[in-house]
Amino acid sequence: MNNNKWDSFYEKAADEGDIFSMFMYVYSLDDVHLWVPQHFHNAGELMYIAEGEYAIHIGTEDRIIKAGEVAYIDSLTPHWYSTIGDARVYVLVFDKKINDKIFKEKVFPTFMKKSDASPLIRQMFERAGKEWDVQNIDYKKGFTYALIGTLMQYYPLLDRKTAKTTANFVDILKYIEENFREDLTLEGLSSKFGYTTTYFSRLFNKITGVNLREYINRRRIREALIILEQNDRMPLSHVASLVGYTSWNTFYRAYTSYGAKRKK
Questions:
Q1: Does the pTM of the predicted model rise above 0.85?
Q2: Percent of the chain with pLDDT over 90
Q3: What are phi and psi for residue 186, nearest 5 degrees?
């Protein structure tokens, strides 16, 4: 599998408010191929494969998961996925507060094999999926607790291999998302959020997989590509200024490094 790491981004919408989102993907060989670029969020995520196969990358692992299997994505873990032929896939994104309340310093295995629980899990997803959009937050929260409780009966929780990242880092990612057009620096951000520059740099690299400058460049170029998709006649010099570049040369280097790859 090709991991397009350059396209990794923080999914801010997954961490706003009381989040309980369910998505059902149903694809056949005649459908447009689905590819969700690498991203991460503070919310937890569970994926159940009802039919077919799915290619998924979580953290540093690439897998093909099959019908009856479950994948768990922990907070701030980069991941991406794509379809392989016919597939029916359920994805549940749930509030991080549930993660903290239930799991504490424990986690589900990242990949959970098909078990005796698989038919029940499928039934739960299919029933909830039919009425999810019209249900209130209490129903969605109750379903999430019931699903996690069912999984815990069949899949023992594991100790986290590394120390849990502080919730403060999510505030940093949100701040960058809202201000990536500004002149953000390692020194400025580390001071604003109470870190030493050296520690902040190591932490940022560990979470995002890239350094701060590269992350900001990728975010700006992703925004530039969105603008160009909406208006492909807009001069690149104007696009550069809209996404935060004051130097044409800096924009052009970033655009050819990331933007050209995106267009292929």
A1: no
A2: 34
A3: -60, -45
